[in-house]
TrEMBL record:
Residues 267-277 have a biased composition (Basic residues). It comes from Botryotinia fuckeliana (strain B05.10) (Noble rot fungus). Keywords: Nucleus, Ribosome biogenesis, rRNA processing. The gene is Bcutp23. One of its GO terms (cellular component) is small-subunit processome. Gene3D superfamilies: 5'-nuclease (3.40.50.1010). The keyword Nucleus applies. GO terms for biological process: rRNA processing. Residues 222-238 form the UTP23 sensor motif region domain. Residues 165-175 have a biased composition (Basic and acidic residues). It is found in: Nucleus, Nucleolus. This is U three protein 23. SUPFAM superfamilies: PIN domain-like (SSF88723).
Length: 298
């Protein structure tokens, strides 16, 4: 089944469920012709119905349709179809052989089962699967009857009939009107607020807060020219003056030149340089030896 057609069938069955109360498992009335055609096209009849209706199905067959199969038992392969039809649920139509020596046509029998009182309603929510055009034509006049047939080994479901569509639209309009009436009666519907309503609300709020009635309302200031954003403005730079405080480096130099009493200069202490890399150990050793000699001579 193509995807587009499958979506249409699923949506159609949802509409039948919401408008006419269809639910799984769907009761499908079969006639003798669709059983024969399904066997001729090598189709799984029950599986095809489940795929078309998008749900579980309960296949049913009337007594008159079974009598039609028995009448054609001399044809090749019909005995197998009779055994297969016996597995379906038997729908008693009431057309007994004593009263009706010849079985009724599929049109009359199925119509009597679907709409026995001629009310134009599908009381028991049957789905009709038939190859007979006359059967489908009669079912279109009854409200809420899904119709299924086989065309060239493809199972097709007819769109909703005009009578069913009119009934669905009428019910939707009545529900809509009923909802409006019930909303007006209960006062749940919202009404538009006007300026007078807003003033009344403000006055009632002031009374609750204890504000006197003669109190004048504060007027809102008219919006003036907008200035720049103070956070986005650049800050003023501070003027740098002459620093009179001596730096730390000058203090150290003065202390090295003169002693604490200011009489004699103090000798600077030598800082020993340590090598940063292991590869320079030899070079450091050579420089360290003459420095020791210089200390001894001094």
């Amino acid at each position: 089944m193509r995807g587009k057609r499958a979506k249409q069938y699923k949506k159609l069955m949802q509409q039948y469920g919401m408008s006419f109360g269809f639910r799984e498992a769907y009761q499908v009335l079969l006639d003798a012709d669709i059983i024969k055609d399904a066997d001729r096209f090598k189709m799984d009849l029950v599986g095809g119905l489940e795929r078309t209706l998008h749900g579980q199905v309960k296949p049913m067959i009337t007594q008159c349709s079974m009598r039609h199969l028995y009448a054609a038992s001399s044809e090749p392969g019909v005995s197998y179809l009779i055994d297969k039809a016996k597995t379906y649920e038997r729908r008693r139509c009431g057309h007994l052989p004593e009263d009706y020596p010849e079985p009724l046509s599929a049109r009359d029998c199925i119509k009597a089962v679907v709409d026995g009182k001629n009310n134009g309603t599908n009381k028991h929510r049957y789905v009709v699967a038939s190859q007979d055009i006359e059967v489908r034509k009669a079912m279109r006049a009854i409200q809420g009857v899904p119709l299924v047939y086989i065309n060239r080994s493809v199972m097709i479901m007819e769109p909703m009939a005009e009578t069913s569509t009119e009934t669905r639209d009428r019910e939707e309009r009545s529900k809509f009107r009923q909802g409006i009436k019930s909303g007006r009666a209960s006062g749940s519907l919202k009404r538009k607020r006007t300026e007078g309503d807003e003033d009344d609300d403000e006055e009632s709020a002031k009374k609750d807060m204890g504000v006197p009635e003669g109190a004048a309302r504060k007027k809102k200031n008219a919006p003036g020219p907008k200035g720049p954003n103070p956070l986005a403005m650049k800050k003023k730079k501070k003027v740098e003056g002459g620093n009179t405080k001596p730096n730390a480096s000058t203090k150290v130099a003065d202390a090295n030149d003169t002693g604490a009493d200011g009489s004699e200069p103090v000798k600077r202490k030598r800082k020993r340089l340590h090598s940063k890399k292991k590869a320079e150990d030899g070079a450091d050793g050579e420089t360290a030896i003459p420095s020791e000699k210089m200390d001894e001579t001094a």
